[in-house]
Amino acid sequence: MKKFSIVVAGGGSTFTPGIVLMLLDNLDRFPIRQIKFYDNNPERQKQIADACEIIIKEKAPDITFVSTTDPETAFTDVDFVMAHIRVGLYAMREKDEKIPLKYGVVGQETCGPGGIAYGMRSIGGVLEILDYMEQYSPDAWMLNYSNPAAIVAEATRKLRPNSKIINICDMPVGIEELMAKAIGLSSRKEMVVRYYGLNHFGWWTDIRDTKGNDLMPKIKEHVAQYGYALKTDLEGAQHVDESWAHTFAKAREVYAVDPDTLPNTYLKYYFYPQDEVAHSNPEYTRANEVMAGREKHVFGECNRIAQLGASTGSTLEIDEHASYIVDLARAIAYNTHERMLLIVPNNGAIVNFDPTAMVEVPCIVGSKGPEPLTQGEIPRFQKGLMEQQVAVEKLVVEAWAEGSYQKLWQALTLSRIVPNARVAKELLDDLIEANKEFWPELR
Ligand code: NAD
Ligand code: G6P
Ligand code: MN
Questions:
Q1: pLDDT digits over 8-38, tens only?
Q2: What is the Å distance from ligand 3's center to 179 Cα?
Q3: CA 35 to chain centre
């Protein structure tokens, strides 16, 4: 049986050890001969790599492990690029969150001004990796979950239309796990869903068990009362911090706006921006929480393992929920025709919506990539929201490609959570200053 060679781009990511453990746990479904790490920050990557090398030696000594900052070494002889980079690291995420809050505007990694700022940094980084892949392993596929996925996906559609890249988000996976638990199923894989939207901006319209029985009424009953919050914690889940608990509970109020559908949690930033600002601490945002929590834990554990030379007593956990990445790689490698939510060019999947928009819809995935499933016509409410949001995302990509100050100002002005054009301009000027090192020059 063929064994695969993969490169993890953003080897220094806090998610890398969890993903490596997950890959090692799935070798019977997805055999691997080589794992490479690539990052442009050697010090950060080394800490993760030293520990992962030990773990791989212990669990699967046949796998070749390579950690490098050299693109040719990293991208030569690979079948899949699994990309999760964060251009500007948490230091810049912190600014994305704190600068808007100074203006009383939502400060969030992927939504509103913070997401726009992050998008302007990410586009170049993701394109660079895609270009390396095409140069050194032209038959490979890039599975990208670098954020902000909506903007990154639009950039790759527009600027690299023929590239083999698939953009994917784990939020629907995470929410579906909560839904399944809420109604007493053992796994989200017992559900078949219909869903449409943009990334971090979508709705479930139909959820059935594998026999075709409608599960929506039971799930809605739960969401109307608790949102996506559960009475008991989900074991080994990614979204466990207090701020996530708040997000899952808030879904109750997001759901109330349209009880015909079930919403993605990120819609809270667009429907209740004032609530989000009111309960944010402008001195201590999610970036601070992650630096003090996940980053500290992962790097602390990796350094400990490296020093010990063994993973004995490790508290690093398998990122079980990230097995959707293996499902995706397998779908391409073995033509499994797995049904998955992916971010793809609309092309009529949402009938009454811009065919050139990057939308998140269920797709059948085989060796030629995703085939989107039509979701029919969408109602006026969602269509109106999505048209505004997709225009923001397209304007950001145009602003990046053309170096246009005006278009980025328009993008910020159009964002639902920015109150007016004056605040948009003040914010833009602050963000330009903070992102000098990363953004193209705007004229
Ligand atoms: P992190 O900062 O810990 O890791 C990112 C790594 O990328 C760093 O080591 C950094 O040096 C590296 N990097 C930055 N620019 C690079 C470039 N141009 N080339 C190579 N490497 C580069 O961040 P994290 O919190 O672990 O998150 C990583 C990414 O995954 C983020 O974009 C995050 O938003 C995303 N993410 C996405 C999903 C999803 O559902 N799509 C889920 C979780 C995380
Ligand atoms: C969800 C989203 C990701 C996002 C992550 C942030 O999983 O789908 O796109 O990166 O949340 O989590 P964090 O713990 O970094 O705030
Ligand atoms: Mn996401």
A1: 999 999 999 999 999 999 999 999 999 999 9
A2: 17
A3: 21
- Distance set, CA 49 to CA 45, 83, 267 (Å): 6, 16, 36
The predicted-structure confidence for 285-295, as pLDDT tens digits, reads as follows 999 999 999 99
Least Cα distance to 200 among 237, 164, 175 occurs for: 175
Backbone angles phi, psi at 425, to 5 degrees: -70, -40
Closest among 243, 233, 246 to 182, alpha carbons compared = 233
DSSP label at residue 17 = H
H or E stretch at 276: helix 273-278
Q: Which amino acid is at 287?
A: A
Long-range contacts of 69-72 (CB under 8 A, 24+ apart): 69/38, 69/39, 69/40, 69/41, 69/42, 69/45, 71/38, 71/132, 71/135, 71/136, 72/136
220: tokens are 């809605």
Name which of 13, 49, 26 is nearest 325 in CA terms.
26
Count of positions (residues) in the chain: 443
| pLDDT, tens only, 64-94 | 999 999 999 999 999 999 999 999 999 999 9
Cα–Cα distances in angstroms (integers) from residue 194 to residues 101, 201, 315, in the given order: 35, 14, 37
Ligand nearest to the CA of 84: 1
Q: Which residues, in sequence order, are CB contacts of 39 under 8 Å at separation 6+?
A: 9, 10, 11, 12, 45, 69, 85
**Other beta carbons less than 10 A from residue 269's beta carbon:** 26
What whole-number distance in Å separates Cα of residue 106 and Cα of residue 279? 10
Whether residue 107 contacts residue 97, with contact meaning beta carbons closer than 8 Å, is answered with: yes
Ligand 1 and 121: CB distance under 6 A: no
Distance 190 CA to ligand 1 centre (A): 31
Name the residue type at position 207.
I
| Three-class secondary structure of residue 340 per DSSP | strand
Q: Which run of H or of E encompasses 96?
A: helix 89-102
DSSP string for residues in 153-204: HHHHHHH-TT--EEE--SHHHHHHHHHHHHTT-S-GGGEEEEEEEETTEEEE
Q: Where are the beta strands (DSSP E) in 60-105?
A: 64-68, 80-83
* Ligand 1 atom at shortest distance from the alpha carbon of 44: 9
Q: Residue 297 to residues 76, 291, 301, 316, 428: CA-CA distances in angstroms? A: 32, 9, 6, 8, 34
